[in-house]
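Example S7 (structure tokens).
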């Protein structure tokens, strides 16, 4: 029987395929005494052999889809299964204690994990704890006769159904086969939503009950435009959505014609539509989607994808590649934003009750100036090869910005004195993501060359609500008048000092938010690359004078998030 499932439209498009449940199975067990010890040992070896064969296949698949370097993690997993100390300890435990293999596996793996995690002076060995956990889960699944989901092995068209999708899950998704996904959790700013837009596949998130309602192999339609999932669609549903998919493809073809056009409104005002990127490898997609700039280059990948602090030369090469790839268009690089939900094994951070409010981003950079200065030198050297701008994350006070800028100036002068080529003009700005900073935007604007509004953090800090917490997700309200007033204050302060203001949060690519932002006078809109042409098309239909009236109403008259949504929809016929 056909059932409709409502969620949040996270990535445009329409797809139809059978469901693939990417859910973690129940691996619970009970401790049992055994009489036939050899049979239990044989059962263990059978599970080890099955796990090894499975890992070899997973590794081959990962090497083809992700590359040899990414696939090497599975070599470590196979080494654990080949380690006589690990498997031997389980076998000995079965013989000595005469209990089931599951119990001994659990005990032995816990000892290995504890041992590796205690090696605080050796980050490489500490990371092996995660490998032991993965191998244990795989072995346990074979002992229990339970199948683990493995997205890298998908070889037919499917719609992924998951409670949520982690970065490691999405890294294994093959766009050739994964046509869309539906999750229980998440919002437009969740990792899974952003990844869906990068993969250009339709997605619905935040349904709350997808994994409970949808069964494996059921036919499912994902309407990423309307935020609707259709379970077991009727013939009429299939016909309706197939036509909608054709219409959307035609719409995308029209947007494609704007690829080499400037971003201009109906009344001829010019703005910049830019891309958010995570690595230099994202630059071709940004260019292919018509990006006029990179409004946010997240530099964290250099730190997250390394077993040690990246060298100056390693960073220089990455920044240089991005700058050259953008062919003279500006690239705004955010300095290291580690902390909060981003942890490095080789850079131990203090245990904190509130890591998002703690030691992170610019606070680490100002404290660990050795790390900060290395990054700044790499950026300054790369500036010779393109149009670079630098911005500091998590600035809360004027003194923080002035201190960071002073360190930048010191490193710049050192390079110039040494005869190293450095660009004559590099804009140095800041992320506007802390409410306290937005309140004193007029003071900060005297020192910063630009502001880039990070809506994701600005909203969660303003609302005192973790955007990843499903219980308070309703407070993620980008259109709330309180947020819009902070945005207006920031833009006005920048313009008063002759500076520009941009936005690099997901709201910059939101069709409901863009009309308001146009009315507020935002200069640059940086978003997922795949949203650029859609937003450029929207802007061409909007008159800035009309949008100013809408923005004024949203800021001064609206009381709720919903008020603003209704106001914009009515005025723009969305």
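Recovered sequence:
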């Amino acid at each position: 029987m056909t059932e409709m499932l409502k969620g949040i439209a996270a990535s445009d498009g329409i797809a139809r395929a059978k469901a693939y449940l990417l859910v973690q199975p129940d691996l619970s067990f009970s401790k049992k005494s055994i009489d036939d010890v050899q049979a239990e040992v044989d059962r263990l070896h059978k599970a080890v052999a099955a796990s090894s064969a499975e890992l070899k296949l997973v590794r081959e698949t990962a090497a083809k889809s992700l590359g040899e370097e990414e696939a090497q993690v599975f070599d470590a997993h196979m080494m654990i299964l080949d380690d006589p100390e690990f498997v031997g300890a389980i076998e000995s435990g079965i013989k000595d204690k005469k209990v089931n293999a599951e119990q001994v596996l659990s005990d032995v793996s816990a000892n290995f994990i504890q041992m590796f995690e205690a090696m605080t002076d050796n980050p490489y060995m500490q990371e092996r704890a995660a490998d032991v956990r993965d191998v244990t889960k795989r072995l346990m699944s074979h002992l229990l006769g339970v199948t683990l989901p493995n997205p890298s092995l998908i070889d037919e068209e499917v719609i992924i159904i998951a409670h949520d999708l982690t970065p490691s899950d999405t890294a294994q998704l093959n766009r050739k086969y994964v046509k869309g996904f539906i999750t229980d959790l998440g919002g437009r700013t969740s990792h899974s939503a952003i990844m869906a837009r990068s993969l250009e596949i339709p997605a619905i998130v935040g349904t709350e009950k997808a994994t409970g309602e949808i069964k494996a192999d059921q036919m499912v339609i994902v309407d990423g435009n309307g935020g609707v999932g259709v379970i077991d669609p009727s013939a009429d549903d299939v016909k309706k959505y197939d036509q909608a998919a054709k219409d959307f493809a035609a719409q995308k073809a029209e947007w494609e014609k704007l690829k080499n056009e400037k971003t201009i409104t109906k009344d001829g005002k010019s703005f910049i539509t830019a891309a958010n990127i995570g690595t230099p490898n994202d630059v071709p997609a940004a260019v292919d989607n018509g990006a006029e700039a990179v409004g946010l280059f997240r530099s964290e990948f250099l730190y997250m994808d390394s077993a040690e602090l990246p060298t100056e030369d390693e960073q220089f090469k990455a920044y240089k590649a991005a700058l050259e790839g953008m062919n003279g268009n500006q690239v705004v690089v955010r300095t290291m934003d580690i902390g909060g939900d981003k942890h490095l094994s080789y850079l131990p951070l203090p245990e904190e009750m509130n890591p998002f409010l703690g030691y992170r981003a610019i606070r680490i950079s100002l404290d660990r100036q050795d790390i900060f200065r290395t990054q700044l030198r790499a950026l300054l050297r790369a500036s010779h090869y393109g149009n670079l701008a630098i911005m500091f994350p998590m600035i809360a006070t004027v003194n923080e910005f002035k201190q960071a800028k002073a360190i930048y100036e010191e490193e710049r002068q050192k390079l110039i004195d040494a005869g190293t080529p450095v660009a004559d003009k590099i804009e140095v700005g800041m992320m506007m993501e802390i409410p306290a900073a937005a309140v004193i935007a007029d003071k900060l604007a005297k020192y910063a060359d630009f502001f880039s509004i990070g809506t994701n953090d600005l909203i969660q800090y303003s609302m005192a609500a973790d955007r990843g917490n499903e219980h308070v997700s309703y407070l993620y309200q980008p259109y709330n008048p309180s947020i819009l007033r902070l945005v207006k204050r920031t833009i006005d302060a920048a313009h008063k000092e002759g500076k520009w203001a941009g936005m690099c949060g997901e709201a910059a690519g939101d069709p409901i938010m863009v009309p308001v932002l146009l009315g507020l006078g935002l200069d640059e809109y940086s978003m997922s690359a795949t949203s650029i042409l859609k937003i450029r098309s929207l802007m061409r239909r909007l008159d800035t004078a009309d949008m100013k009236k809408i923005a004024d109403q949203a800021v001064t008259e609206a009381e709720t998030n919903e008020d603003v949504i209704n106001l914009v929809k009515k005025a723009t016929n969305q």
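Notes on this example. The CA atoms of residues 14 and 244 lie 7 Å apart.
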